[in-house]
Structure formats: structure tokens, C-alpha cells
Fold:
Amino acid sequence: MHNEAILPSGTRSGSPPSRPIVIAAENLTKKYGDLAAVNGISFSVPAGQSFGLLGPNGAGKSTAMKMIGGVTRRTSGRLDIMGLDPDTHGPEVRAHLGVVPQQDNLDEELRVRDNLLVYGRYFGLPMSYLKPKADELLEFAQLTDKAKSKVDALSGGMKRRLTIARSLINEPRILLLDEPTTGLDPQARHILWDRLFRLKEQGVTLVLTTHYMDEAEQLCDRLIVVDKGRIMAEGSPARLIREHSTREVVELRFGSERNTTIAAELDGIGERLEVLPDRVLIYADDGESALEQVASRGLRPLTSLVRRSSLEDVFLRLTGRSLVD
Amino acid sequence: MSARTASGPADPVPTAGAETEAARNRTFGPLYSRNARAVIARGLMATRSTNWLVMLSGFFEPVLFLVSMGVGLGAIVGTVEGPDGTPISYAAYIAPALLAVSAMNGAVYDSTWNVFFKMNFAKLYQGMLYTSLGPLDVALGEIFLALLRGMLYATGFTAVMGVMGLITTPWALLMVPASVLIAFGFASLGMGITSFLKTFQQMDWINFILLPMFLFSATFYPLSVYPVPVQWFIQAMPLWHGVELLRQISVGVFTAATPLHIAYYLVMTAAGMLLTTLRLRSLFLK
Structure:
């Protein structure tokens, strides 16, 4: 699946430069006391692009999203959303935004369709517009037969789709998605990806955070990897893999005890070697020939696997493998 | 401040300039988008799934007090001195006070427990503030709903007073709008205070304040029974002003103190609205 995601990305990496910039951040900073959650990041997103914010927990992704949405005031820096400053023009900026927060905050006291209608009213939209729009969005979210259901009777995937449908009620120019598929099963994720891809085709600018690398490869034209409030890398998924990893990776397992000791004997194979507790990774442009070299040195791993390099390799290289809470 | 980077020919933002000007000219800027009615519409739609028993209990509580104390205790007490010095029945004496309590309860229930739940568990306001709504829209809408409930309670209770023969002057009908004013004060301050509370234990403090206020605010007997320092304390509390105001209206007797009672609630309302808006802003627009 990784390979499939990489191959066509050359055709969809980046938007034409003529597209207007809809989000421009310059030295965007948010401090909570001494802690800088977002520490001077700069990026810009042209209209219609799908832009990803990647990073471990606590990297500052959600804080950046909240500043774009105008619900968190920045400490310093410049932020421009479609020509407006969200700090001073919160309601106007949010009129053009759709927001899918990390945790669903659907209105449990209202039924499914009413959730869409009421949310549209918050934008001051008239019922004559909202009624057909709500039905259209229920269809889009595959929830038409649940229109009159109570929200708490929906499954996790359905709630997520309803949240996305709700975020589209005002026909936003920019859709902010904070970890859109966390906690969903694979079927629900794929349905959601499909829906998001359709939105992108309709020209909606997507800004999403995720820590699923396959999701980022599927959905993002361009992304930034954020760690400790700073940008570590920026580019299309394919370019990031090219720049920060090799074309292929060989995964070898020698058994937990031997992995460390055997590393010395692998020296010189491939471009880079990484020893993990459970396996040894060899980063090489040609995985098969690297594997042959291993065999020619008389080493017999318990299992071996040659695969294409993925965004996950880039991510782990840039943000480290230690656990972040 | 806002470079117009988005206004290209391919994807223009036609209204951004006008909106920018409109926002600059608005008194409350990013806090208010003149759409509190959407919050009200949401509240009315949600009442379909409301626990009606809880709502009714707020209405029946003062009615039960009126029946037991007014009719039962009233049989022993007989008549007491009314606001203008003429004797009135004990039930007629405590009824306006209980109406003030009813307005307070209705407003406080909606603006404290309901708001507490929506704020901390349903994340309702968080969702609202991701739309064009500002915190002042949310505050106004929620407080209006509390007032609506307060008005329903007050109308119902006034009707009960009429049925019990406790209404003797057309002035008494003014008790309904006066009750709404009382509810306004309690609802706006109540919502502001609730925004500070984080746990159920802290929410219990609200009852801890309301119950003694209900019992001791000259509800069942005149203020003159207390020593002077205690009188001052009671007079500083909001419910006493409501009790006195409604008691005066119930018999159509007005004094120099009447505008003071009204002013007390106007100030309380304004302070509560300010507190609530600022708190919602600091809670949700950090």
C-alpha cells in the first residue's frame, strides 16, 4: 500500500503556483507560560491543496490548528487566513472554515439531521438553504437512513462522518481536520479517505493533522513534520522520502539478543544502519543487493524483508524513536 | 494588519473587505456576531429531549411551599402586616416571595447545571465557537433560554396565586415581567460563576448558597426580626431585593426603595453578562 501511495504522488504533488495563498503563517508562536507549544513556524497553503501537519503527540499540531481556527490566540507572529487575521476577525474567518476537532463534539441532545441544521444556523444561514444542504451532506456521509437517529446511537465511524458532514454545512473554503481517523477501524478509515479525496477534487483546501503516515501519504499533497513546536521538514510525501530516506529498506531479524552484536558485522552495507531492539534496518537504494551482501557475509537472519521506504521511516528519523507523551 | 493575500482572480474573497470594516466597527469585535437567536433555536429544539420531570419540579417546589406554609401555617399565623401597613393574609404575604424564589430557581437551574454540563461534558460551546458565533452570542442565547424558563415558572405561579384568590390588584400582573428581571440577574451571574466551577462538588456550593438565601431573605417573615448587622447582610443579597420588589408589586404599593430594587438587578445583570462573556472568551478563545 505504501508503494501505491508513493508512485502517483509525482502527479499530485503541489498545486500550480498561480493558486492564491489561503493560509499564510509567519513565525507563528504560541506560548503557555514558559512552554512554547508552537515555536516560530512559517508555512503557506495555496487554495485547493491538501496540507498535512505531522508530528508526535505534543508537537504543537493541534495548537497550530486552533490558531488557524481563531479559537486560540497566538503569542506572536503573523497569521493570515484568506486575508483576515483570525485573532481580530474570528467569526468572519470561521465563516469560511470547516472544523473537524480531534474529539467529536456533536450535539447529543439533537438528532442526526438536526445537528446539521442547527450547526448551519450558527453560521446565520437560512433554513431554505440548510434543508436541502443537510440532505445532500447526509447522502455524502452515507447517513441518509440515520437522519432521524439519536447521535449516541451512531457508531464511531458514523459519528466521525457526521462531524465531517457538519463541518461542510457552510461550504467552507478551508477544512481543518484534527486527526480525522484516529480510533476508526480500517473500513471506516477508507470510507473517510474516499470522502476527503472527493472534497479535495471539489477544490476544498484541506489542512489535516495525523500521526498515521499512510494517511498522510494518501491524502497530503504537501506536509510539514513538526516536532517540539518547530518545523523539521517540509515537502511532498515523495520528496520527503527522497530527501530523508533511501529508496528501499531491508528489515532483518536476528533475535532480540543478537541484533546489537551483529550490527558491527553489517557495517558498510547500504547507506545507513539502524539497530532497534527487535530488528536491524538497512537503508539502501537497492534492497535486494543489500540483502545479497548480508548473505555473502555468511549472516543468516531469522526473517528478512525488503520494502519501499515510507513516510514512517522519514517521520521516525526526523522525530526520533523515543516515546513521547 | 491583514495583507490581502487571498484576493487573487482565481479565488477571490469578495466580502472580506466589507467584513473587515464591519468587524472593526462593531463594539464587541470578535466576541459577537449578532446571532444569539441560533443558540436560542438550538435550545428550543433540544427541549424535545429534556427531562420534563426535572423542569416541572422547579415549578412545583414553590407551589408546594405556598400550599403548606400559606394555607397550613397561615391558619395559625392569620394576617400579617403588608408592605403598605394594611393587614394581609399570610399566604398573600409569602406568595410574591415564593414567586421570586421560583424565578431564581428556574434561572439558576438553566444557567448553572445545564451550562456546567454543556461546558464540561457535551463540549457544546466548544463546537459553537468553531462557527461564526462569538462568546457573547452564546452567553446571550443561553441566558435568554434561562429567562424563558423563569418566565414560564413565573406565569404559572402567578396563575396559581390567582386561583388561590391571592391577587387583589391588576398591578400584580407586573409580577411576571419583574420576575423575568430577577431571572435575568440570576441567570447572567449564575452562568458567569458556573464557568469557574470544574467539579460536581463545587457545583454543590451553589445549593449551599441558594438554600439559606431562600429561607432567610425575608421570605417567610419580615426583615425586622433580625439584628441590624444581619439585616444589612440580607439586604446585600440579591434575593431579598426580588422578594421586596414582588411583594410591593403584588399589592400595588411603591416606595422610594422600588427603583433601588430594580437597579440592583440591572447592575447584577450587566455585571453577570460581562463576567460570562469574558469567561467564555478566556475559556474557549485562549
Residues 1-27 of chain B have pLDDT under 50 and may be disordered. The CA atoms of residues 7 and 155 of chain B lie 55 Å apart. Chain B touches chain A through 42 residues (CB under 8 Å).
